[in-house]
Design goal:
single chain, alpha/beta, Rossmann fold, five-stranded parallel β-sheet, 8 helices, 5 strands, about 10% strand, binds adenosine-5'-triphosphate, binds (3R,4S,5R)-3,4,5-trihydroxycyclohex-1-ENE-1-carboxylic acid, binds magnesium ion, shikimate kinase activity, metal-binding, ATP-binding
Length: about 180
């Protein structure tokens, strides 16, 4: 894993990033249980803060306003001293402030899913704004670099959830082993 070692690994948040429908919430619930950490889900925090879903905010106030709120929600979650598992909003890797905070305070896992599978996964749940396949394709192409820059670990998230969780736990253990070996 790359990324800043300013904080001990065990103090860092584990943040799941990826496109809408990539499985951040689903994997986040299972990972938080295994790590015995709280789950901070961007969509849940957004609704608790505003009383509205992302889809409602985008429709009423525009996508830029939604993005501004999502940025604040992630920065708040990362500022919490208690290490958590965080399911971040899909967009946040495009925000330089978020990428900086992620590099400082988190181990970042990119749940990467091809567009065809994403589109069927996005059909579930009511909180998402609608996105057609061509728009999803263009968005992923544009955002690929941001995900790659932010991520310490990239997983093919077509795998079953328990395998994804095991891969994250393995990567965290390996990083812990390396930092123990490197300690003076
Ligand atoms: N590893 C997986 N294998 C198969 N289906 C999955 C997997 N992970 C998630 N799903 C399914 O994909 C759909 C979207 O998952 P989820 O809501 O967790 O995505 P998300 O990344 O949190 O989306 P959003 O960014 O919109 O909140 C759900 O129906 C979920 O059951
Ligand atoms: O991935 C995206 O582009 C988005 C994700 C959501 O969190 C919202 O920011 C919005 O619906 C756009
Ligand atoms: Mg989610």
């Amino acid at each position: 894993m790359s990324g800043s070692d300013e904080r001990e690994r065990s103090d860092r948040h584990v943040v799941l990033v990826g496109m809408m429908g990539a499985g951040k919430t689903t994997t986040g619930v299972a990972l938080a249980a295994r790590l015995d950490r709280p789950l901070r889900d961007g969509d849940v925090d957004l609704e608790a803060r505003t009383g509205h879903t992302g889809a409602e905010i985008a429709a009423a106030d525009g996508i830029d306003h939604l993005h501004h709120l999502e940025e604040e929600v992630l920065l708040d979650a990362l500022a919490d001293e208690r290490p958590a598992v965080v399911a971040a909003a899909g967009w946040v890797v495009e925000a330089p402030r978020c990428r900086e905070a992620l590099a400082d305070r988190a181990t970042v896992v990119w749940l990467d899913v091809p567009v065809g599978e994403l589109v069927s996964r996005m059909a579930t749940g009511a909180h998402r704004r609608p996105l057609d396949p061509d728009a999803a394709d263009a968005l992923l192409a544009r955002r690929q670099r941001c995900f790659a820059e932010a991520a310490d670990l990239r997983l093919d998230a077509r795998a079953p959830v328990d395998e994804l969780v095991a891969s994250v736990l393995d990567a965290l253990d390996e990083a812990d082993d390396r930092s123990t070996e490197e300690a003076p």
